[in-house]
Amino acid sequence: MTDINFYVSPQEGLDHRLIIAHRLVxxxxxxxxxxxxxxxxxxxxxxxxxxxxxxxxxSFIPHGIISNNNSLENNNLETANKVFISHNYEPMNDCDYxxxxxxxxxxxxxxxxxxxxxxxxxxxxxxxxxxRYAFYRDRGYTLAYHQM
Length: 148
What we know:
about 150 residues; Rossmann fold; about 25% strand
C-alpha cells in the first residue's frame, strides 16, 4: 500500500512548496527512486524545471517535462531520466515516488510506492490538503505529517 507524507511549509506561496519539492527530489534520488512531479499547470511545470536546473550553482538534477502531447514513450526520455514533471500526463507504469504540487488528489496516486503532498500556509492549500489527508486516512493509507 502507498505511504503518504504531508510536508507543510510555515510560509505561504508556491516558491516555498517548490523548495520542499527540490529537497525531496534530492533525497529520493539518493535512494535511486523514479520521481514523478505532478503540477497544477504548464507554468508550474516550467518553474519546477527551472528550479531543478538552477537551484544549485555547481550541479543540476537531470529531468524531463512530459505532457499528453509529448509523452516519454514517443521521445525516449524515459530511459534517460529519473525525474519527470507534468501537469497533464498520467504515468502508465508503476512508479516509485509521486510529488504532488496540486490541490487535487491525483487519480493515479496508488500506482506509487510513496506520495509526498506538499502544502504551504495558504488557507486554500491547507483546506484542500486536509480533505486529501482525510480521504487517505479513511481508506487506511499509512500517513505521516511533517512541519518544515
